[in-house]
Write the structure tokens for this entry.
Amino acid sequence: MAKIGVFYGDGFDPGAYTLALFHAQVAVAHTAHTIGLYTFRPDDLKTASMQAPEVDGLLTFGPSSTDIEFLKTHDRPSLVCERVVPGCAYVAPDNYDMGRTAATHLLDLGHKRLSVALPGDPNTLDAYHGTRFVGFRETAAAAGQPITDDDIFFGAKEATTGTAVAETLLARGDLPDAIYVQNLPMALAAFQTLTAAGVSIPNDISFVGTTFTQLNAPMATTHTIPPMTTVTFQKEEMGRMGVEYLCEAAANPAVSPIEVLLPGILIGGESTAEA
């Protein structure tokens, strides 16, 4: 019997944590294994783990670079969720594939001029949205449809950015064939702003958003009119696969660390159509 400690880094995305935690609990529900919940401050995972000697394995969310160095030398098995960490076990989204999946879908529909909107500053993009952006852009370029700088939008990770992107497109009076908006609040706001202005989706522009199978809003994009086509990944697998690996590693230290990338999944809606 193993006790798995779920270590939540202060400030980490609560949506990802909540969903993964739920499925971690489901994974041990009918076994002799148990789960304990712990919180740590940035750079202080070592202290938090030392205060939990009863834990046989660490399922971590939001470790800093200092925390990761600790995990690499720690004597108990551990796994990092939602981040690719060389030298550690991890389960993370394949962000490049998510971008590629969105672009491939739009290109297969015959769209030529693609646009993309993502949260962040172009000079300091994070590994999540930046890698999705690269996957989207490189896939379009490889198909002979490079994305121009004028059709790339950056901004804060909030609904107002989506509104601003849509307003910019409307002010130009020259819509791209299709747009991929990487963040759910941004996508919902952009979608609403376009349709409120009389833009017909997908007749005037095909629209792809990003969402996740989350407990707090599992069907958000199905309530747009028309229902939004999205790209996602199975966040629940982080909790399930992470706990299963840690239970096995606690019983057998010779088990090799897992390195899992969860592929992009296209959820077909009605917001995309053939050119």
